[in-house]
Specification:
By secondary structure, the chain is α/β, with parallel strands linked by helices. The chain starts with a strand and ends with a helix. It folds into 2 domains: about 1-215, Rossmann fold (3-Layer(aba) Sandwich), CATH 3.40.50.300; about 225-285, 2-Layer Sandwich (Alpha-Beta Plaits). It is built from 9 helices and 14 strands. It has helices at about 40-50, 90-100, 105-120, 135-145, 165-180, 190-195, 215-220, 265-275, 290-305; strands spanning about 1-15, 15-25, 30-35, 55-60, 65, 75-80, 150-155, 185, 200-205, 210-215, 225-230, 245-250, 255-260, 280-285. The chain has a 6-stranded mixed β-sheet. Strands 2-1-4-5 form a 4-stranded antiparallel β-sheet, with helices on one face.
Amino acid sequence: MDILTIENVRKAYHSHVALDSVSFSVKKGTIFGLLGPNGAGKTTLIRIITNITKADQGAVYLDNELLSIHHPRDIGYMPEERGLYKKMKVADQLMYLAQLKGLSHDEAKASIKMWFDRLQMAGWWNKKIEELSKGMQQKVQFVATVAHKPKLLILDEPFTGLDPVNADLLKDEIYQLHKEGVSIVFSTHRMEQVEEICDDIVLINKGNILLNDSVSSVRTQFKENIFTLTTDVPAQNWDLIPGFESVEEQGFSRTFKVGEGHHSNQLLGYLLDKGIKIQSFHEVLPGLNEIFIKLVKTESNHAHE
């Protein structure tokens, strides 16, 4: 079952095509990574999903219903840029925004107070936004995003401006919402966060989809037959056999690439025959950052051919 379905969505601004027949879906109850370099079309897509702007062609479905003007009540959107009124008090602003999303006065107050407790925001009720640090403002914006209990959360660079302690606090709350069944679309440039947090990803570049799969499948798809091996003998004391290329050597560990037509078991057998004990052995899969850069560069090169 999908919470969000994008079907052949196209959006152009004059001669610039921001999205070119984009299609993908987000499974219900997952954390989904929406990735792409600056200008890829991510923000345009988010604006279409949240009904801020309309697609020229295509359709968007939320929980199997064609997107309508009523659906923003089911969505929580936390933009990268802060959309808070600096002169307003924190409580007044959050109460106003929560009631806009359909909560009663009492429901809004109870939800906001609960989130203040969870995010260690006691004492902020009557502060003005301009009195808060960037990190504190980010936490206020998060409360504005989740107070109305949306079924779909869209978080655009949610950890911007947060110190490590508050970033971990917010991350824990995102995981908790995930456990409670909230579906989350997570947009960021920080690939290590995507690897840690996301189940599935889509990579958009220049309005087109380059990748759409699970994080684990993507990393496996781009593997390059590179392994790391640790033995009880310093790496410099034994040589690789033909068909194996050394990548890095450090202490008792060696990282190597297996050539075409060869298998890592050949090297393991060779070492065991020599009486060398193997302490650990694992395949080195590429990180999403490496894959991201490779794909975007390849796409850019093809565009200039």
